[in-house]
Design goal:
Layout (H helix, E strand, L loop, with lengths): L5 H12 L5 H11 L3 H19 L7 H21 L4
Helix pairs in contact: 1-2, 1-3
Length: 87
């Protein structure tokens, strides 16, 4: 069985989450996740996001959180203009 690292998990994530994924792939990723907390959290987050999307759930974002996000994005945008990154 192929040994997986975090990059391999990211590359194969959609196949792993897909119900039709190959058993060998699932085993390799599950084995990696048993040792890697970061990948467990990432896979869990992606699965939860998919469930929320499929359920059509909507969550009201608090006004304060929206304002903080806009301010952070504005700061990042201004900083990127000054650094010449432009991305």
């Amino acid at each position: 069985m192929k040994s997986f690292d975090c990059n391999s998990v990211l590359e194969q994530l959609s196949d792993f989450i897909d119900a039709d994924a190959r058993e060998e792939l699932c085993q390799a990723i599950a084995e990696h996740m048993s040792r890697c907390r970061d990948c467990r959290v990432m896979v869990d987050t992606v699965k939860k996001t998919i469930v929320l999307y499929q359920n059509g759930s909507s969550t009201e974002v608090p006004v304060r959180a929206t304002a903080q996000l806009r301010a952070a994005l504005s700061r990042e945008y201004e900083a990127s203009k000054g650094s010449g990154r432009g991305d």
